[in-house]
Amino acid sequence: MNDIIDALADHLNGWALVAVLGALAVGGLAAGVFLAVRTGRPFTFGLPFGLGEARLEEATALPGSGPVPAIGSGADADDSGNGTAEGVNSAGSWRRYATGVDHDRLFGVDALITELNTILTGPGGNWVLSLYGGGGAGKTALAFDLVDRCRRTGHFDRIVWTSAKNAARESAFGERDPLALAYWQDVIGSISRQLGLDTEVSRALWEERLHDHLDALDPDKRILLVVDNLEGLEDATNVVESLRRVGLRQPHRLLLTNRYPDHSRHVISRLVPPLPTTDALALVRHIGSDDPSLVSLSDRKLEVVAQRTEGNPFLIKLVVRTYLESGRPIEHVLEELGDLGEGRPDSAQSDEPLGLRVRNYLFAQALAELEETHGRATVVQLIGAFGTRRAGDTFGYDDLQRISGIERDDAFAAVLRAACRMSLVRPSQVNSRYSIHSLLYEFTTQGS
């Protein structure tokens, strides 16, 4: 299965010129933003910004109508800074920002969501809730359902969802580097727009404007801010402190997703645990509900899926959807999955943790199945396109086709549809944005 990975690496190398030009543009942009923030002078740039997830989503924001509403007025703000007809306690525009959510039901988390909802809506002094766990554990999905429950109760007057991947890095000198500063400005811009603030002013004024807005809110108005995709404890600490400086604190709430627990002051951390066997098997049958042979298998035969994936929901989805797409007998798939538990002395991977070995196997198998039906070159082009940007970034449909280089519309639509069915590509915002899981991003870009 290494051929397709090697091809992906070659494909990414083919973007060297684009990467160089992009680096020059981003470097100039980051320096400009850095100077603007330090000097307070307006900063303009002649090309689309396109760095952070929040800015990318501007292209697909629904057009608004009418004046900007005051918080709590029953209207949500769209990305343009104008009000929309969506109320904070209806579907809410925050859903458009929750990228990477592709589930229709969660398993084994009802009690946990009830506990987390109590923490978020209770009167306690800790105003930050951090959901942590390994890649693919379902942190974003859990946060999404938790926020949706909070929406239904009407406890918060405004819900804001953003992603802060790469936005909290620090340089070796202990200061945030210019590129991370540019990403952070994207986060502040996304928050500001969702709160109905004008972001057409200089970026240097965004934090000040946000601080003034939060400071002027009525004491009984509450905001729930979700910051998704943090990668480490240092990131979480930096984000919390940065948001405190702009005025986000009690009675508002901050919900983070992170890979590590945070025991800092004001923070409550809760682990998103692997699925126990019973819930893992329920998820298997739910995903494969249209396949009678899979649904009818005994728990004993399906337990290998729970064991080898270690209850990781993302890997379980990958197993079942790869099986459904491949058309191979389920017994063959389970047998191969079971063999991965046997460490062979002659195997170069025998010393790797089982979870990592299974993950790499599943990605290789899924990519190979996709290649079988759509051709190696097409698969390399599609998956390789995601490697031209940073982990977590999303693409619009037309943008993804252009960057992939797949010229035929029918071929692009077919391979993208199949990749989505197999959980290799994740659609969001009513199939208008596309991304890949951070684990797949790491797998396909390793060594490139």
- Per CATH, the architecture of the largest domain is 3-Layer(aba) Sandwich
Structural class by sheet pairing and helices: alpha/beta
What percent strand? 5-15%
How would you describe the shape? Answer: globular
Gyration radius over CA: 22 Å
CATH topology of the largest domain: Rossmann fold
Average pLDDT across residues?
75
Biggest sheet architecture: 5 strands, parallel
Q: Tell me the name of the CATH class of the largest domain.
A: Alpha Beta
Percent of residues in helical segments? 40-55%
- Give a count of the beta strands, DSSP E runs of length 2 or more: 8
SSE string, helix = H, strand = E? HHHHEHEHHEHEEHHHHHHHEHHEEH
Number of domains: 2
| CATH level 4 superfamily of the largest domain | P-loop containing nucleotide triphosphate hydrolases
Compute the number of helices. 18
- End-to-end distance: 16 Å
Describe this protein's structure:
The protein has 448 residues and is α/β, with parallel strands linked by helices. The chain has two domains: 48-271, P-loop containing nucleotide triphosphate hydrolases (Rossmann fold); 275-445, no CATH class. It is 49% helix and 8% strand. It has 18 helices and eight strands. The protein has helices at residues 2-13, 16-39, 53-56, 110-121, 139-153, 178-194, 206-216, 233-245, 277-287, 292-295, 299-309, 313-326, 330-339, 354-374, 376-386, 397-404, 409-421, 438-445, and strands at residues 128-132, 158-163, 223-228, 253-258, 267-271, 395-396, 426-428, 433-435. The protein has a five-stranded parallel β-sheet with strand order 2-3-4-1-5, with helices on both faces. Strands 6-8-7 form a three-stranded antiparallel β-sheet. Strand 3 (223-228), helix 8 and strand 4 form a beta-alpha-beta unit. Helix 1 (2-13) crosses helix 15 (376-386), helix 9 packs across helix 11 (299-309) and helix 12 packs parallel to helix 14. The two termini are 16 Å apart. The model is unreliable at 12-91, 169-174 and 344-350 (pLDDT under 50).
